[in-house]
Every structure is written in C-alpha cells, then in structure tokens.
Amino acid sequence: MGKILLIGGIGAGKTTLKQMLMNEQVSYQKTQMLDFSNVFIDCPGEYLEIPRFYHVLIDTSHQVSEIWALQDATKKRTFYPPKFSKVFRKPVIGIITKVDLPTADIKQASYYLNYAGIEEPFYTTSSIDGGGFAPLRMRLEALNELQNH
Ligand SMILES: Nc1nc2c(ncn2[C@@H]2O[C@H](COP(=O)(O)OP(=O)(O)OP(=O)(O)O)[C@@H](O)[C@H]2O)c(=O)[nH]1
Ligand SMILES: [Mg+2]
User: Which end of the chain is more exposed for a tag (fewer CB within 10 A), N or C?
Assistant: First the structure.
C-alpha cells in the first residue's frame, strides 16, 4: 500500500486524523518522534515548526506516495514557508482540521495552504462529529487500488 506522510504544526490534528482513519481509539498523545504504521507516517509538529528539522520531512517523503498537509482552522498563523510543498516530489494534499470549533476560519486556513503552494480543493475535517472523513477514506481506498493494479 502506498504510504502517506502527515505534516502540520504542533497540535494540528495529525495523530487524531490518523486514529480516525485507521478506526483506532481517538486519544490524545503528543507525537515525540517519527511514527510508522502500515499506511501513515506521523511526525511531531516540531518537524515543520523548526526549520532545522525540514530535512527529516524531505527525507521521509521519499518513502511515501502522498503527503497530507494539515492546517488547523483555528490557528491565526501558518508554519508553512511560502511554496513549501514544492520541495516535495510527491503530490501534496491540503487538509483543514478542527472545522467544528467556533473560531474556525476555513477561508484563512485555505489562504495559508495556498501560500504553501498547495492546490485546491482542500479537505475539511472534524474529529468531533466525524465530518469530512468519508472523502479521505475514499482517497485512501483509491490509493490502495492504484498500488494493487
Ligand atoms: N475540536 C477539534 N479538536 C481536534 C480536532 N482534531 C484534533 N483535535 C484536538 O487537537 C489536539 C491535538 O491533536 P493531535 O492529533 O494530537 O495533533 P498532532 O498534529 O498530532 O500534534 P503533535 O503530535 O504535537 O504534532 C488534541 O487535543 C485533539 O483532540 C478536530 O477536528 N476538532
Ligand atoms: Mg501527533
């Protein structure tokens, strides 16, 4: 199966998204190091927030078929440098998380993802009501099909 690298700032919701899609129990645990599973490679948000770790993301991207870049809809800032997605030689898909929260600003989050060089359409998700996960599940399945044929 083609793997997916999850990137995003600290607390963007990478581990939660992985737990939802893998039908695991959703429980908060800060990611401390690269975490490999069958499908997802999850990493600490520090790898995006601290530029001297960028190389870990870039190196790890060679092992995956897609990169899923998360943006917390409630964050008033971005950790993606301009055109950051262009350093990867793999497709980068934008996901806006926490859209259930009252302070969520999907337009602002879309702007940040665009700024990072990621093209629309963006997925929007809520781990609280499960919204937006169906299209992501379909994307996972499609990726799986692609690998098997
Ligand atoms: N309301 C709401 N909270 C969410 C959502 N997704 C994640 N959270 C919460 O945000 C916090 C951080 O989520 P994580 O999934 O641990 O974030 P992460 O990107 O893995 O963070 P690091 O491991 O530190 O890089 C947790 O308390 C989650 O419950 C969402 O869609 N809605
Ligand atoms: Mg995590």
Answer: C
